[in-house]
Amino acid sequence: MPPRLTPLLLILLCLLPGSGHADGLNICYHYRCSRQTYFEISDEARDWLAARLTRADSAASERDAVSDAVTALYRIAARETPIWQDKGGNIHDGPAEGRMDCVDHSSNVSAFLSYLDKQGWLKFHHAAPPAWRALWILDLHYTGVLHDIAAGQDWAVDTWFKDFGEPPVVVPLSVWMKGYEPPAVSGLAAAAQQSKEGNSP
Fold first, then answer.
1. pTM across the whole model
2. Strand partners of residue 141
3. 43 lies in which domain range?
4. What is the DSSP string of the chain?
5. Would you say residue 14 lies in a domain?
6. How many domains does the chain have?
7. pLDDT digits (tens, 9 = 90+) for 109-165
């Protein structure tokens, strides 16, 4: 794990003109953000992110671009961390070193969205604080959030449902709050329940 940079050193690095240093972000994993590290974003990756986001000409197309950017940032982070081992949900992770729960995912996605926002690449949205839902007492779940400025609408940006490297679920937060799961995940859960019932005595 790279050594931690003190806040003073981070400020000094940011103030250096034309230093050529790559951007960097913190990322956490191993459930409940129990492990944290730092990864760098190369100039080439930064140029790609900027180009992808600035092509967006509507709120909807910007959400598509944000989905691509979040996926790309995770893949960049996976070059220096074991998060590529993460599986959708929690039960399929097993003892994988890079496993992530929804706390990890919402924290990482919120950091990604904030980074994109601070770069000035978002024209139709702002990064918002993460949100949570608890439909049942033990069903607590978190997500990153993107705020549509013109519509005044919040959108859930949730990477927890699917295996590593797949794009996030991006749906209205009001829908997500009601217990939304992507169709593939819902289908797997239903199939598992039917199989269980079919094997019952």
1. 0.80
2. 133
3. 23-198
4. -PPPPPHHHHHHHHHSTT--PPEEEEEEESSTT-EEEEEEE-HHHHHHHHHHHHT--SHHHHHHHHHHHHHHHHHHHHTTSSGGG--STTTT-TT-TT---HHHHHHHHHHHHHHHHHTT--SSEEEEEEEEEESSTT-EEEEEEEEETTTTEEEEEE-SSS-TTSPPEEEEHHHHTTT---HHHHHHHHHHHHHHHHT--
5. no
6. 1
7. 999 999 999 999 999 999 999 999 997 766 799 999 999 999 999 999 999 999 999
